[in-house]
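[job 4471] stage=fold_predict status=RUNNING
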Amino acid sequence: MLPLHQGGTRDDKSRRLQFCQTSCATECFPCTHPAPLHDNENVTDQTPRDSVDFIVDAWERERPDIDFAPMKVLSRVWRLSKHLDRTRRAAFVTSELESWEFDVLSALRRAGSPFQLSPKSLLEETLVSSGTMTNRIDRMTQRGLVERRTDPNDGRGILVSMTEDGRRRVDTAITELVTAEGELLASLSKADQERIAALLRRLSLDID
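[job 4471] inference complete, writing structure tokens
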């Protein structure tokens, strides 16, 4: 959208002035700030396109009878999950942790001192089967990351406790992970990140 002297409309001018008054406390005109979009305005043809755009375009051409709106959202979520998985694995290299080891250790770390949980609680935290969790605890015990202890409140119960080495590794891993994830989102403002988080939260609540 252009200012009046470059072919813009009076509505553009009004929106620009309002934007400047609320955002930079000036009434600059001709204004160099971009006019904010209305909620119902569509993305223009000049908006950069990603691989999902081309995939959806091809499907819409071949199957115009189907509404591909869900693919525009979830295909991007799926592709971003691939990037996140690579980022996670790279962030755990220094700590010499596998992603699944980090999941278990982070659940124990979030529990707070004395950093221990029952196997059932770990199942609920990591969303894996009982057999898978038993195997993971066995392997992590062998590596000295966790240890099994008798539950003092239930002589027949077992608690999984994080060792000092496990705590050191997970603390290093979470620091590197959050830094790496921040770099992935660097092109988005804090406000954009909060809006996306809110929408994904609503979707997650519906699915979970």
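[job 4471] summary: Residues 1-10, 12-41 have pLDDT under 50 and may be disordered.
[job 4471] exit 0
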